[in-house]
Every structure is written in structure tokens, then in C-alpha cells.
Amino acid sequence: MEFLKKLFCKVAIAFFVIFLGLMGLGIWLKSKIPTTPKVAVLKVEGVINTADDILARLKKVEEDKSIKALVVRVNSPGGAVGASQEIYEELKKIKEKYKKPVVVSMENVAASGGLYISLPANVIYANGGTITGSIGVIIQKLTVKELLHKLGIKAEVVKTGKYKDILSPFRDMTPDEKEYLLKLEENVLNQFKEAVVENRKGKLKVDINQIADGRIFTGSQAKEIGLIDKIGNYQDAISEAASLAGIKGKPVVVELKKEQPLVKKILGTSLKGVNMLDFDSPLMVYYLMP
User: Fold this and answer.
1) Which domain, by its residues, includes 175?
2) Contact (CB, 8 A) for 104 and 84
3) Pairwise CA distance, residues 100 & 102, whole Å
4) CATH at residue 235
5) Does a structural domain hold residue 21?
6) What DSSP letter does each residue of the chain carry, written as one string?
7) Which of 190, 192, 214, 267 lies deepest, with the highest CB count within 10 Å?
8) pLDDT at position 238, please?
9) Tell me: the pLDDT tens digits for 48-84?
10) 112 has catalytic annotation
11) How many domains does the chain have?
């Protein structure tokens, strides 16, 4: 019986060693096999409230050496300033630090923050009827003072500074508060304008102040003023990205999909409702086309 136990242990160890050897051999062989160059596609759709998921997907572009270029498919009216700026910076990093071409394909709408995140691209495509532009900043606030008055409800606020409840829905803003917010918006707008001038240097055919008033443009109009580069569709953008990356023939295209929560994978839907804007944060400054 003791002999059988020893024999079993020796056989188990031998199998384990062989398994490790084969696994190592497989990894080594995989490293020696030439990887097919790929064009990755990132879809940015809807209002941009957070950048976390998109940044996680962009990290794959940076880490995967087989991904040679990136196409960003934008269909968004914009969103929160901070999230838009985080995506913008990561796309700049992919283009400049990792030396991977970035091409934007604008679908129906790529306005305000949707335009902002498009700016770092080597080439920006849009359809003739795409809506873009809307270079501006907006802060919105609801006022329910009259409704509360009709319901006989009175709201009282204790605050430590005169601007602490500046967006309170229970009262109107004072002229001083509106002026304060306008200066804040002008600062954020200047950041947008600087990004346009920096990234469209030599391409923009008008003074930035002529178009940084919130107005929107069609894709055709945007091309005329140098806000985008070419009129073309999604497939044109993929071909452009492959060409910039030096990929010969038809490129292998991989979509960078959002990692779905386990609940959604099982049920086919999430249990959380979707809000157009993130009302968890009372003060949000937006690059957004209302």
C-alpha cells in the first residue's frame, strides 16, 4: 500500500511538471508567432458623464502591441467637462507617447464634449450632415421656489459662505452669483478654445472666437472652416487608420467593448436606471449641446 502511495505521488508530480513544461512551451511559441496587426474601435455614445470605462478600454490600446491604430466612433452631444478632458488626454497619450494613429469617425452628433474628445486625432472624419461644433460651456439649475410656495413648503439653508448654495433650487440666483458663474464658465471655455487652437493648428481657417459661441455646424460646414479634416464614413476612417499605421490589405478590426457586470451578463440587462445627466453631483459644468 505504501508503494502505491509513493507511485501515485511520483506520477502526480511528473504530470504536474509536464503540464508546466507544456504551458511554458505554449507561451514561448505564442510569443514567437507574429501577431496580426489590428485596428481597434472605441465607440463613445450618449452623454459623457464619466470617463472610467472608456479609460479602461483605452488602456488596452496602450498595452496590446498588436493594436497598431485606433478609430474613435463618436456619437455624443458632449457631457461633463472633467470626463471629457480625461478622455482627451488619454487619446493624446496614445497618439504621442505610444505612437499609434488615432482617427475619429463622427456619426450623427459629435458636439461640444464630443468634439473636444475628437481634437487629438490625426484625422477627423464626419458625414456631411453630422452635427458638430457647439464650442461652449453650460451650467444648468432648476428652480422650484414658486412650486414650494404653492404647496406651503418653506426651505431653510444654513451655510458657511455666500456662494455655498449658489445652485440651490429653492431660490433665484443673485446678479452677483450669475456673474461669478459666468467667470467660471469663461475659464473653462478658454480651455476648450485652447484645445481647438492647439490641435487644429494650421488647419483652422477662422479665428476661434468667431465659432466659440455655442453655435453648431454640419459636417460640411465644419470641413469648410477646418474644424474637421474629411467627409467620409466609418469604413473610410478604418481604412485611414490602417493606412496611417502602415497596415497592408484589409485590416483586422477589433471593437473595444465595455466590460459588462455579472448581473447584466446573466439577466441581459442591468438593474440600474440610466440618467441623461448625473444629478448625484449638484454642480456639474458641461461641454454639452442641450
Assistant:
1) 34-258+278-288
2) no
3) 6
4) 3.90.226.10
5) no
6) -HHHHHHHHHHHHHHHHHHHHHHHHHHHHHHHSPPPPEEEEEEEES-B---HHHHHHHHHHHH-TTEEEEEEEEEE-EEEHHHHHHHHHHHHHHHHTS---EEEEEEEEEETHHHHTTTT-SEEEE-TT-EEE----B------HHHHHHHT-------SSTTTTTT-TTSPPPHHHHHHHHHHHHHHHHHHHHHHHHHTTTT--S-HHHH-SS-EEEHHHHHHTTSSSEE--HHHHHHHHHHHTT--SSPEEEE-PPPPPHHHHHHSS-SS---SS-TTSS---EEE--
7) 192
8) 98
9) 999 999 999 999 999 999 999 999 999 999 999 999 9
10) yes
11) 1
Instruction: Indicate whether 17 belongs to any domain.
Output: no
Give pLDDT, residue 88: 98
Known catalytic residue at 93: no
In a domain, 191, yes or no: yes
The single residue of 59, 164, 178, 203 carrying the catalytic annotation is 164
Catalytic-role residue among 84, 105, 112, 118: 112
Q: Say if 49 falls within a structural domain.
A: yes
What CA–CA distances, in Å, run from 233 to 107, 112, 193?
Answer: 8, 20, 26
| pLDDT tens by residue, 232-249 | 999 999 999 999 999 998
Tell how strand 131-133 and strand 102-111 pair up: parallel
Q: What is the pTM of this model?
A: 0.81
Strands 102-111 and 123-126: parallel
State the cell numbers at 222.
465644419
Counting Cβ atoms within 10 Å, is residue 264 exposed (0-12), middle (13-18) or buried (19+)?
A: middle
CB 87 within 8 Å of CB 51: yes
